[in-house]
């Protein structure tokens, strides 16, 4: 049996309590010398209202449980995240090719993002942009660890995530369903498929692929792409960090698109609340 996922920090835990309290096995709070600090008391009350067990533990025990994550006196043990099957998830979004063309889903695919901070930040941007699904490759991907969940501000526990051993083949199957596949690249000018995020036609079912921080898109994945889009740089920087580039492209993609299924009764997800600065 898989170990529980660790979610650390006041805001991520509070957001998780609002969104999916049934997945929380236990919340641990730092034991102080007097009354519980105000912010921790709010977490304790929210957990109590949701029926989630709360345990007061010494600071040292909390440090061990957090496994290096910044916890702010709060750590939640959560049921392990289960990746969905790609075909199952896509069928739930739009079962037929006609529905794919009509609903124009936006899928985010990650091709070996190695840094857990980037992984979590990209998930957070994907959730914020309202993507319909996220598909990641098994090989070379960062684990969905406490660090990644923390970087996602807890949204990794809500995201529609699927995983595949062969992303290139999965992209081919998505194209057969009616999706167009565009890979994000820093400078694809030498390729006949080269375009920019401004010029790509986002008003159709699209899979946006983000490559690894160092290598970019793998050979098979790059071959499966219908287009290779760059974010034009106006200053001397040659490129952006993977998570920043993903966020820019996602919100350009969704600017004029119809609303996704995210946050509707189909996913059973509540509306997201603004995040306070602490716990970011």
Automatic annotation (TrEMBL):
GO molecular function per UniProt: RNA binding; RNA methyltransferase activity
Region (Disordered): 259-280
Gene Ontology cellular component list: cytosol
Chain ranges of the RNA 2-O ribose methyltransferase substrate binding domain: 6-84
SMART domains in the cross-refs: SpoU_sub_bind
Pfam families the UniProt entry points to: SpoU_methylase (PF00588), SpoU_sub_bind (PF08032)
Name by which UniProt lists this protein: 23S rRNA (Guanosine(2251)-2'-O)-methyltransferase RlmB
Organism: Rubricoccus marinus
Taxonomy of the source species: Bacteria, Pseudomonadati, Rhodothermota, Rhodothermia, Rhodothermales
């Amino acid at each position: 049996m898989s170990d529980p996922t660790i979610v650390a920090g006041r805001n991520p835990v509070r957001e998780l309590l609002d969104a999916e309290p049934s997945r929380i096995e236990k919340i641990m709070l730092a034991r102080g010398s007097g009354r519980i600090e105000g912010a921790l008391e709010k977490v304790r009350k929210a957990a109590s209202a949701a029926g989630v067990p709360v345990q007061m533990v010494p600071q040292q025990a909390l440090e061990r449980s957090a496994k290096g994550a910044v916890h702010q006196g709060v750590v939640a043990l959560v049921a392990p995240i289960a990746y969905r099957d790609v075909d199952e998830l896509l069928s739930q979004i739009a079962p037929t090719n006609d529905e794919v063309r009509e609903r124009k889903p936006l899928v985010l695919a990650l091709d070996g993002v190695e840094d857990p901070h980037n992984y979590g930040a990209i998930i957070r941007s994907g959730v914020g942009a309202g993507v319909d699904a996220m598909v990641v490759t098994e090989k070379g991907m960062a684990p969905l660890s406490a660090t990644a969940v923390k970087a996602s501000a807890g949204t990794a526990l809500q995201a529609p995530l699927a995983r595949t051993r062969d992303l290139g083949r999965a992209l081919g199957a998505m194209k057969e369903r009616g999706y167009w596949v565009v890979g994000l690249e820093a400078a694809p000018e030498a390729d006949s498929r080269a375009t920019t995020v401004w010029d790509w036609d986002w008003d159709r079912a699209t899979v946006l692929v983000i490559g690894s921080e160092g290598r970019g898109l793998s050979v098979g994945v790059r071959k499966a792409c219908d287009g290779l889009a760059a974010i034009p740089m106006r200053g001397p920087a040659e490129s952006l960090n993977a998570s920043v580039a993903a966020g820019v492209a996602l919100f350009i993609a969704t600017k004029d698109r119809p609303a996704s299924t995210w946050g509707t009764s189909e996913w059973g997800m509540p509306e997201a609340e603004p995040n306070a600065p602490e716990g970011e």
